[in-house]
Task: structure prediction
Amino acid sequence: MASYTPQKSDKFTFGLWTVGNPGIDPFGVAVRTPVTPVERVRKLGDLGAYGVNLHDNDLVPFGATAHERDRIVKEFQQALKDSGMVCAMATTNLFTHPVFKDGAFTSNDPKIRAFALQKVMNAIDLGVELGAPIFVFWGGREGAEVDASKDPVAAARRFRDALNFLSEYVLSQKYGLKFALEAKPNEPRGDIYLPTTGAMLGFIATLDHPEMVGVNPEFAHETMAGLNFYHAVAQALEAGKLFHIDLNGQKPGRYDQDFRFGQEDYKQNFFLVKLLEDHKYDGPKHFDAHPLRTSDPEDVWEFAKGCMRTYLIFKEKAAQYNADKEIQAILKELNAGDKNLDPILSSKFTPQNAQTLRDIAFHADDLAAQPLPYENLDQLVFDLLLGVR
Ligand code: GCO
Ligand code: MN
Ligand code: MN
Result:
């Protein structure tokens, strides 16, 4: 696999807004003029990507007429077909237009909440027309800077009402679409509601159709809050809720950097890729990242190639880790288990099990004295990642 050439089966995807990012930031104007969405599809297809994702307005401008919309969609569908690409995920832009400056689903104004639902229903129709099986909800403006302005309990209820309404819409249309909720702690709001993947998982359990709804964790979002993204993804995976994933790069404690996948924290990314591969995650791997503001148009494609190449290198490293005799021997030792206790610990409470545990004479000092050679193990990982193993 030494060429690290992406295959369609790798399911690598890019948002139209990623390679289409013009480099605007709060301090500076655009530095690039992105090529058209159709060109982005062609170029990404040539590079080996599996598909693209879009917000409604990445493709169809806000306020376009029905006629314009249909023409744009037709041309885009043709481009997907010509380049063997799919639309893997769709979503709604509920953050750019000033109408959403104080939120969409959680706005205090019922007219704005209703407009948001109308916009999402249209975006769902668009996504389904393009063949997207997953629809993402990122509540970018669903938050506050001034806590006196909105009741967070009402906000949670409004968010839930919106998702319940939209789930029923999907069911009534017989669309077979799944929802994936994306958490972010802050930016563009001072604080965004439901700030972590764990918060989203808790919220999903309160919905009318939890079976339709999973999460779309993003590397940058857990990491900017100083949290362990690998652990967040593992929790989602274990709950059967990892419907989609946004891969990128981020340093802890900064603004949402959305760097190229793998740009920061190689070890965290390695364990993340290993997790996805070991557990056979088969959803799309979406690089929700931006090329650096310093990139010229050509460097934008180096950015896209880099995201995919890095994933494949980590995938190879994960296979090497799983085949490494020394590492595996340590893991085997650490996970030796106990043939008498394991069945009890993995079964439900019974009075007998409780009595059995009560009757055992544990020797805590002996248990504490068992070796945990983590320095050795972590150095082996380092050597492996740095290619000296
Ligand atoms: C961010 C967000 C966005 C969303 C996307 C989907 O970086 O702040 O991740 O990129 O994923 O807009 O709605
Ligand atoms: Mn981000
Ligand atoms: Mn994202």
Remarks:
- The chain is about 45% helix and 10% strand.
- Strands lie at 12-15, 51-55, 86-91, 134-138, 143-144, 178-182, 191-192, 213-215, 245-247, 285-287.
- The first strand starts at residue 12 and ends at 15.
- The chain has a mean pLDDT of 97.
